[in-house]
## 1
Amino acid sequence: MKVVEITWDDAWIESGDMSVKRARRSQPIRTKTIGYLIADTKYGITVATDIYEKDKKNVKIVNFIPHGMVVEWYEYHD
């Protein structure tokens, strides 16, 4: 499976008090994720951090990133 590095803008939440002025300046959190490319669909990109080598049919720690949040991505080659 291909290994990819995805740069994307993540949403966030603040549960404490915040001034309206500060809230209006909110921005997404720029994030980088590296993992095995599981799928690239019309909805987004699915990556996993672990693949079981024995059968390659099971993965763990799956992350789905909608295309609208992706800034750029890079495929690593052997």
## 2
Amino acid sequence: MNLDETREVVIGALDELERVIVGKRDVVELVLLTLLAGGHALIEDVPGTGKTLTARSIARVLGLDFARVQFTPDLLPSDLTGAAVLDPATRELAFRPGPVFTNVLLADELNRTPPKTQAALLEAMGEYQVSSDGVTRRLPEPFVVLATDNPIEYEGTFPLPEAQLDRFTARLRIGYLAAADESAMVRRSLAHATDPAALRPLVDASGVVEMLASMDGVEVHDDITDYVVALVNATRAHPSVDVGASPRGSLALTRLARGAALVAGRDFVTPDDVKRVAVAALGHRITVKAELWVRNITGDAVVEDVLGTVPTPGTRPAARPSARVPNTQWAR
């Protein structure tokens, strides 16, 4: 699958998803960009804003297997990854895969389970495999974790460790609908037009893998790479920050910017693509100094600040005879 075909699928998926998800095209697009980056997304918002609907609908449109796990205080790691059970027919132990063996895993309310179970996802998210009873098993391709948490409830919850947050390519918030969009949502619900099962699959798992591979065709100029690194380094030197974004943040920001360029119809990344996804890619990786929490200074605010202070590279793509010629020459 080439870049044009990948973009056609993404735009088609966005149009199809608008049949059931009202007024949140930008959020849905960011989830799709995360998938194109080969990463995972943390959807952080209050209940009832459509987090589960978004995850289930995206899986349906892309023809991917979907599994939902409700994270609770008594959930065990084996409930997620699977365990060896006795087969009555053979009287031997056989591995029974857990729900993590899927394409799209909705980890609902991830912060309601203890750190031991949260950690069970670390290997899956980072290495795309699960180790159990001394055996390592590969997860299906593609594998995407869409996790949710509720930022306003603290009783009975466990903060996500920094190592886990860092494994999410992007963090996003859906937010409330505008009044007109909410009215449209209610009308669609009354007309029974919000069922994800009614969505038309545009591709399948193997097609999504080809889409991921095609993203290598989106060129990233050295000036853009330096700009990404400068932004990440600026978060580390920011006076409000204890711990800045990690090198994994540089990779995530670059990959998300590639997806943004693709949706915009280009095969090269511009500084505007980087700026568009910077908050989603870096905000959750930043630890703000404790004494600044009361002033409501967040990682997102730090990223917005460095976007305004780090010089933007003054580059533009050189004139090319064809849009499909590799973007290797840039002009100032």
